[in-house]
Write a structure and sequence with these properties.
By secondary structure, the protein is α/β, with parallel strands linked by helices. It is about 30% helix and about 20% strand. It has one domain: DHBP synthase (Alpha-Beta Complex). A 9-stranded mixed sheet has the order 7-1-2-6-3-5-4-8-9, with helices on both faces. Belongs to the SUA5 family.
Length: about 190
Amino acid sequence: MQEDIKKAIEVLKSGGIILYPTDTIWGIGCDATNEEAVKRIYDLKQRDDSKSMLVLLDNPAKLQTYVQDVPEIAWDMIDLTDKPLTIIYDGAKNLAANLIAPDGSIGIRITDELFSRELCKQFRKPIVSTSANISGEVSPTKFSKISAEIKNGVDYVVNYRRKDNSEVKPSSIIKLGRNGTIQVIRK
C-alpha cells in the first residue's frame, strides 16, 4: 500500500490524475487545488464542468482551510455518521475554481477508509473524488467494472484493493445552507 501511495502522490504533485479506491466506490482523483488537473478529469469523464465534483479530506480539522464558515451542525454530523457522508458547504475557498459549484459550494467527505485517508494525509491537500465512469454511465461498484477508457485515461491506477469484490455504495449527500437548512440530496 505504501508504494501505491508514494506513486500516487508523485502523479498528483505533477498535475496528473489517478484511479484509486475510496471509502465508497473507486474514484478518479487529482489535486483539488490544481485547475488544469481538475479540467483533465472533466474531459476524461466527458462531463460538463458546471457539474461539480467532491473532494476528500483525511481530517475534519482541515475543513476550515477549504470552507469559509463550517456550520456547527456539520461537526456533529461528521462525528455521528456511521457511513460515508458527503456534506455540501457554502463558501468554498482555496480550491481550483473549476471545482467549485456556480453557487460557491463544494462537497467534502472526510474519508475513513485506510488507503484514501492515508493518501490525503500524506499528500497534505484535498483530493478530488468522482466516480470512475463516463458521465451518464452507471458508476462501477468494483474495479473489474471500470471501463478500459477510464483505466487508460488516467496517469496512474492504484493496485491496492483491485481484487476486492465487496459491493459498495456511493455516500449519502447532504447540503447545509447558510441559514441553517439541511437538504438531503442522496440517502
